[in-house]
TrEMBL record:
Pfam families: DUF4512 (PF14975)
Designated name of the protein: UPF0729 protein C18orf32 homolog
Ranges of compositional bias, category Basic and acidic residues: 66-76
This protein's encoding gene: CUNH18orf32
Function noted in UniProt: May activate the NF-kappa-B signaling pathway.
TM segment ranges: none
Superkingdom, taxonomy of origin: Eukaryota
Family: Belongs to the UPF0729 family.
Length: 76
């Protein structure tokens, strides 16, 4: 059995999105634009930040536990 909110909430959201939002959004959008200002993202010219040393990391980029060098010698 499916609970009532699992049926009612998606239906109400669909009704809002389909029928009410086209009328409400033009009224609210000027207010939201004044309150929520968008600041431009400044790009830096420093390319050194993107270079990462991956010698001590595994394939996922996470640091490995244990020695980073693999030895071919057998230990007695």
């Amino acid at each position: 059995m499916v609970c009532i909110p699992c049926i009612v909430i998606p239906v109400l959201l669909w009704i809002f999105k389909k029928f009410l939002e086209p009328y409400i959004y033009p009224l609210i959008s000027p207010l939201v634009d004044r309150i929520w200002t968008r600041k431009p993202i400044q790009e830096s010219n420093n390319t050194n930040k993107s270079k990462v040393d991956c010698k001590g990391a595994d394939t996922n980029g996470l640091p490995r536990k244990g020695p980073t060098e693999i030895s071919d010698k057998k230990k007695d």
